[in-house]
């Protein structure tokens, strides 16, 4: 009976995945929504049956995709399979929502790296070179537009703009991780809702105000900041690693800062307009807003601000 149930669920979820995959490939712009839904069949199967069955499920589904779908479906299936499987296994192991989220993020990072390599090796498209060409075209176009209104930039100014834009290419790992964090969160949330509906399990993320990073993050961030003060070779691997660590740690600390604002509003029973204003200001004025939120996250992490607020409440 157990094996029959596994086969039945595997067949049904496999068909659902293939239908979503075909819709993603053949209906324009739908991938903006389905990219979050593609991992769900893997999440449901892994959450119900665990490691060995979901490995078999992945292999069979990948083989089917190779024969039945377009070339584009291979990287999409790898992405959904890695991310969805690790989220589902986290649920099966009864890990906390944030631990499950971290595992899912790792799975999506691996999937995105596979897509990155797939594009370069199979389609022979070097994304970094394409980005560099786009930067060169953008700088040239901007220069021509400025000239039409009577503004001329010096060669040094143009080179500075070009170097700053090209530096974004070194932050590809940060962009991949940030995208993986977002993909994992939304897919896990959808998985929770469906598991609650079909399997009658109450799974949910704890309130965002309870989000807490380990204190080691702040030390990693500060150590990376110290490295940025050294005169490192801009083209060296160490410099690229330092830049990515700084930006990724800063992103996480910003989340800590926003979480603290929600916590403060909840504990002090302040108006809920405060976190909304903080988010809007950060979007409209990111250089000032995000800097202040990051500073708040550092203070919260370094000085246990929440414990102090709890004691004085």
Explain what you see.
The chain is an all-alpha fold and 313 residues long. It is 80% helix and 0% strand. The chain is built from 14 helices and no strands. It has helices at 2-26, 31-37, 40-49, 51-68, 73-92, 97-121, 127-148, 155-166, 172-198, 216-229, 237-267, 273-284, 286-303, 305-312. Helix 5 (73-92) packs across helix 9 and helix 11 packs antiparallel against helix 12. It starts with a helix and ends with a helix. 27% of the residues are buried. The model has no long low-confidence stretch (mean pLDDT 87).
**H-E string:** HHHHHHHHHHHHHH
Q: Report the end-to-end length measured between terminal Cα atoms.
A: 56 Å
The geometry reads as globular
Bin the strand percentage. under 5%
What's the total number of strands?
A: 0
* Overall number of structural domains: 2
**Average pLDDT, all residues:** 87
Kindly name the structural category: mainly alpha
- The percent of residues in helical segments reads over 70%
**Which residue ranges are poorly predicted, with pLDDT under 50 across at least 5 consecutive positions?**
none
Largest sheet: none
What's the total helix number? Answer: 14
Q: What is the CA-based Rg, rounded? A: 23 Å
Summarize the structure.
This protein has 313 residues and is an all-alpha fold.
Describe the secondary structure blueprint for this structure:
Layout (H helix, E strand, L loop, with lengths): L1 H25 L4 H7 L2 H10 L1 H18 L4 H20 L4 H25 L5 H22 L6 H12 L5 H27 L17 H14 L7 H31 L5 H12 L1 H18 L1 H8 L1
Organism: Aquibacillus salsiterrae
InterPro entries: DUF2232
Protein name: YybS family protein
């Amino acid at each position: 009976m157990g094996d029959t149930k596994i086969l039945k669920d595997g067949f049904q979820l496999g068909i659902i995945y293939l239908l979503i995959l075909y819709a993603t490939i053949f209906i324009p712009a739908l991938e903006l929504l389905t990219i979050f839904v593609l991992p769900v069949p893997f999440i449901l199967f892994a959450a119900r049956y665990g490691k060995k069955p979901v490995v078999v499920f992945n292999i069979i589904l990948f083989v089917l995709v190779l024969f039945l779908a377009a070339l584009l479906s291979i990287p999409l299936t790898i992405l959904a399979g890695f991310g969805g499987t690790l989220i589902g296994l986290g649920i099966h192991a009864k890990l906390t929502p944030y631990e499950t989220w971290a595992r899912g993020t790792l799975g999506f990072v691996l999937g995105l790296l596979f897509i990155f390599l797939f594009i370069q090796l199979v389609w022979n498209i070097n994304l970094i070179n394409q980005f560099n060409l786009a930067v060169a075209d953008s700088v040239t176009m901007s220069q021509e537009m400025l000239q039409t209104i009577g503004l001329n930039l010096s060669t040094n100014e143009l080179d500075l703009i070009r170097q700053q834009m090209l530096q974004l290419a070194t932050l590809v790992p940060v962009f991949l991780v940030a995208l993986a964090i977002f993909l994992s969160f939304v897919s896990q949330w959808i998985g929770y809702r469906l598991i609650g509906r079909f399997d009658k399990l109450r799974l949910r993320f704890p309130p965002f105000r309870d989000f807490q990073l380990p204190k080691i993050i702040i030390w990693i961030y500060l150590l990376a900041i110290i490295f940025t003060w050294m005169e490192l070779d801009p083209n060296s691997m160490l410099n690229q690693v330092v830049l990515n660590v700084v930006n990724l740690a800063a992103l996480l600390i910003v989340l800590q800062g926003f979480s603290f604002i929600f916590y403060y509003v909840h504990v002090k029973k302040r108006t809920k307009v405060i976190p909304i204003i903080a988010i809007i200001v950060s979007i409209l004025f990111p250089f000032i807003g995000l800097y202040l939120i990051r500073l708040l996250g550092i203070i919260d992490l370094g000085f246990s601000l929440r414990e102090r607020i709890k004691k004085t409440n």
